[in-house]
Write a structure and sequence with these properties.
Radius of gyration: 13 Å
Order of helices and strands: EEEEEEEHH
C-alpha cells in the first residue's frame, strides 16, 4: 500500500476490514493519513494486476473482494 508517497508492507494477515501496515521507515505518519490500496500518484502506483500476481490470483478476484465498506474515490 502507499502511505505518504512511500510503499508500506502489509504485516500479518488481512482480517475482515483491518489491515496492519509497517510504516516504521516512513517519516511523519499519523493516524488518519490517506492510504492507497489500488491506484497511485505521480511517483508510486499499485495496480490490481500487481496485487493479483503477488497473491497468486486474478485481478477480478482482488477487486471483487474489497468490501463495500471501503471508501472509493474514482478519478478520470
Amino acid at each position: 500500500m502507499i502511505v505518504r508517497n512511500d510503499y508500506a508492507a502489509i504485516v500479518g494477515l488481512v482480517s475482515m476490514d483491518l489491515t496492519t501496515l509497517d510504516v516504521t521507515g516512513i517519516p511523519g505518519v499519523s493516524v488518519g493519513d490517506e492510504v492507497i490500496l489500488i491506484g497511485g500518484n505521480d511517483d508510486r502506483k499499485i495496480t490490481a494486476w500487481e496485487m493479483a500476481q503477488i497473491c497468486g490470483t486474478s485481478p477480478y478476484e482482488v477487486l471483487c473482494n474489497i468490501s463495500k465498506r471501503v471508501p472509493r474515490k474514482g478519478v478520470e
